[in-house]
Amino acid sequence: MLNVIVLHEKGLTPSDAWYPWLKRELEKREVAVHFPTFNADDYSGVWQSKIKEYMKFMDSESMIIGHGEGAKLALKLLETKSRTIAGTFLVAGHLDDEQFDFDNIKTKSEEFFVYASDNDKVISAEKTEHLANMVSETPLLIADAKHFDEMTEFEDILIDIISVINR
Question: Which strand (E) or helix (H) includes residue 113?
Fold first, then answer.
């Protein structure tokens, strides 16, 4: 079975934003969707223990979605994995001053997709573009998506996930 792990943005839960809609859409296509839940403190260190139980789903047919701070967790997860997954989707991601081994990370996902908003007040499109450059991708700039936290549907990511499933 195909698996998608969604690492939500700090301050959001799996029942917020476009997450429930995406879960429903993927489950219609017989994709299992997993949402490890994090609180604000987990993003700075405890995330590994919280995500450990989901590692069993990370194989060559799996995909990971990271939104905001969740995008950094997705990169950290890829950095520590020994196997390659099918796709990584980074939504309004940024790096700050954190260091990553991008040569290693780029070998751990068959494809990367990066999404930025033209009016994100939390993470600028330029910061997300920098992240995209680090994984050798061009970000998809979504008009008026803000921080992707007020959207209830996210067609672009669904289309891209389906393209990975169908390859």
Answer: strand 109-117
144: left (phi over 0), alpha (psi -120 to 50) or beta: left
Quick one: tokens of 66? 């990271």
> Of the candidates 145, 158, 61, 51, which has an alpha carbon nearest to the alpha carbon of residue 113?
158
Domain segments of the chain as ranges: 2-165
Tell me what percent of the residues of the chain surpass a pLDDT of 90: 77
CATH 3.40.50.1820 fits 2-165, yes or no: yes
Strand partners, 7: 66
Please report which helix (H) or strand (E) contains residue 16, including its range: none
Cα–Cα distance measured from residue 98 to residue 12, given in angstroms and rounded to the nearest whole number: 22
Is the pTM here over 0.90, yes or no?
A: yes
- Write the pLDDT tens digit of every residue in 40-77: 665 566 666 777 778 888 899 999 999 999 999 899 89
